[in-house]
Fold Kinesin-like protein.
Amino acid sequence: MSSSPPVEALLLRAGCGTESPLSGIAGLQPRTTHVLSGYNGTIFAYGQTGSGKTFTITGGAERYSDRGIIPRTLSYLFQQFQKDSTKVYTTHISYLEIYNECGYDLLDPRHEAARLEDLQKVSIMEDPEQNIHLKNLSSQQAANEEEALNLLFLGDTNRMIAETPMNQASTRSHCIFTIHVSGREPGSATVRHSKLHLVDLAGSERVGKTGVGGQLLTEAKYINLSLHYLEQVIIALSEKNRSHIPYRNSMMTSVLRDSLGGNCMTTMIATLSVEKRNIDESISTCRFAQRVALIKNEAVLNEELDPGLMIIRLKREILALKDELVMVTGEQRTDQLTEDELQK
Ligand SMILES: Nc1ncnc2c1ncn2[C@@H]1O[C@H](COP(=O)(O)OP(=O)(O)OP(=O)(O)O)[C@@H](O)[C@H]1O
């Protein structure tokens, strides 16, 4: 078990892009490296609308140097896979969108042509150990960086984007891009599974300030409500002696349960607007980051024996032992069950 790393909070200002997010911002490269070693990681961007969350997480479309944390992480991971000849790695990608409190699979091939209401919704299921499982969310294998980037582009074209008074291309949903990595040494039945969530939260906005109506207002209400529930979870986690953490209030907090207070190494990126008229929002983002930095997670190494490989190994062992027995006793044993055994 790792030594309970605190959730990190990093500050970024819109207009102050970094050339290389992974090496330029302390905390991001370690998160990615830990994923290679079997630990879960999350990097999430939080800030008011238009402050640069999508630019930071996904990147700008115009220049290669503007690419964000997701493409840089994919590049880094696949480079590391190639360098490490001691392990065999498998990568799967899923891309979840939470829009107006409903989950959608951004990698669903029907997404582009179908109406939103006709798409299958992603739903949450909880097992007896309180682990969250997402029904109807696909997980697609990516054999190399190019395939992974194609999945990112496919998902990004399906995202809910709208022009708002505060941002020309505002993302109206929370998006969680997850890279699932499995690594094992050739011939070994021990597998390390880890996942890295790269999260672009929808931005809070003061609807009174911008005077939006109709669909934009409905979206803004859902966004603000879910960010309010996120804040409640963060407040509960940062206070000592709180036994109940209200994860179940929203889909986003349920999905990010582990990232916010469980088996995960988490980094929060707070994005701020440089404009003076947004000073109140910037202060509130900083306060939120301060609370997040108080949370301590318990990240554990996700290592298990692959049941399929274990069965193959045990069958082989049984065969070898049977051969040995035949040599020692000279008696040929039969696999047939006796009448007594069949009646049990
Ligand atoms: N570091 C940066 N360098 C250059 N342009 C930037 C930077 N950060 C943000 N921008 C630009 O500012 C605008 C708003 O950024 P972005 O869409 O990333 O904000 P956001 O926080 O995701 O907003 P929303 O919550 O509304 O989706 C975009 O046009 C983006 O290209």
